[in-house]
Structure formats: C-alpha cells, structure tokens
Amino acid sequence: MLTNDEIVQYQKRLAAHRSTLAHYLLQQALLSSAYIPPGVTNGIEETRANIAYLKVVLREIGLAVDDNPDDVAIEIRVAQSEMLDATRASLDPSVDASRFFSGSVMRDLGSAKEISKQFELPIFMVIYDPKHPKKSRLDHSLGYFMEYQTTKDLVSRNFVQALLASDSLGVYQYVPADDPLENCLLVATYRDNIILREGVYANPDEGLKRVRKCIDKWASMKEC
C-alpha cells in the first residue's frame, strides 16, 4: 500500500509527464511529418507509456484519475472507443469479477492484450461458458482457487487479469477442442505463448501453488 507521500509523488510525476507530453506534441505540430526527429516521436511514445503506468497505479489504490485526451494517440482513442462499445454489448452482467480478483480485470481479450503489450506482462485469463447453467462453476472453482488474499495479490501484481466469456471475440482459440467447459479454464499466456493452461482447481492451497508455479515459469521464459 502506498503512503500518502508516495501518492503525492506519483501525482506529481503524472503532472510532469503530461507537461512533457504537451511540449513534445507542440514540437510535432510545428514540424511536418517528414522532418519530425526520432527523439520527438520516441519521446511521445515513452511519455505516454509512463502516463498510462501512473494512471493504473493510482487507480489501483482507488484514486480517481481523469483521462486527458492527449494521453493516448487519436487512433488509439478511436480503437479504444470501439472496443469499449463491443465490450459493453457482450459483457455478462451476471458475473462480478471483483468477487474473485483484486484490482482491474479485463472483460475482453483485446484490452487484455493491449495492456499486456504495453507493460510487458503476461495475461492471467479465466475462461467460462456464459451459457452453462453454473457459468462453468465459476463461483465454486474460481472462488476457492482465488480464496487466499495472497493469491489475489500475486495475480494482481504479476499479470494482466482477465475474466472472459468463451463466446467473446478471439477467446475460444484458447479452449482445447475436447474441453466442454464444464469447469472454468485457466490460461496464462504472453504474446500467445502459453505459460499454463489447465482447469481451475477448487482448492485455495492448489490455487496459491499454481499461481507461484506460473510466476516462476514466466520468470524463466524472460531469461531465455
């Protein structure tokens, strides 16, 4: 948990990065696209990545952070708007992700992949069948798997969290052909490289053990 002084420092860093971004964007506007130095283009991308990171940190601890229109490029804003509309249309209101996870939980694969790429984190996705009478036993299996606060904290700190309906765009490719999703499925992946894929165990000790195993395997993959 951040101290008050640390929170103030994060807020000051956010304001400073936005000021830097405004300076870069002014330079970009004053130059034609053929003459924009690489330092300006790279500076814009790096500063926007820092802004995105700081917004996530502050929002994770419950602080409200306004979105500045310049925080992301216009083409990304359009894509995010379209993605949000699609997500709202397909979101299963009967499943509350906050019952299982701490912090932000993506409900569409596209958003999860975008954040994974931006912060170079693997995705911890749990897939369920929204048409199953018990939603692939989410309450039972995932509820017990994620019961320990330690497990929730490890997943929140080390992964992009996602709770995905199997009929959402692009999700079913991660479900084995012989898996009818009677039980929800855990898939940990980074840039479509599978770190772990297995049914969710309805046991808090097994949940903690498997999350730690997944973190260790991810660490080994990064070293390769």
SSE order and pairing:
Layout: H1 4-30, H2 38-60, H3 74-90, H4 109-119, E1 123-128, H5 138-145, H6 149-158, E2 160-165, E3 185-190, E4 193-199, H7 204-223
Parallel strand pairs: 1-2
Antiparallel strand pairs: 1-3, 3-4
Look at the structure and give the mean pLDDT: 86
How far do the termini sit from each other? 32 Å
CATH class of the largest domain: Alpha Beta
* Count of discrete structural domains: 2
Total helices: the number is 7
Rg on CA atoms, Å: 20 Å
Give the full name of the CATH homologous superfamily of the largest domain.
Answer: Glutaredoxin
Strand order of the largest sheet: 2-1-3-4
Outline the biggest β-sheet: 4 strands, mixed
Strand pairing plus helix content: what structural class?
alpha+beta
Defining traits:
alpha+beta, elongated, 224 residues, 52% helix, four-stranded mixed beta sheet
Write a structural description.
52% of the residues lie in helices and 11% in strands. It has 2 domains: 4-72; 92-223, Glutaredoxin (3-Layer(aba) Sandwich), CATH 3.40.30.10. It is built from 7 helices and 4 strands. The two termini are 32 Å apart. The chain is elongated, with a radius of gyration of 20 Å. With 224 residues, the chain is α+β, with helices and mostly antiparallel strands. Strand 3 (185-190) and strand 4 (193-199) form a beta hairpin. The model has no long low-confidence stretch (mean pLDDT 86). Strands 2-1-3-4 form a 4-stranded mixed beta sheet, with helices on both faces.
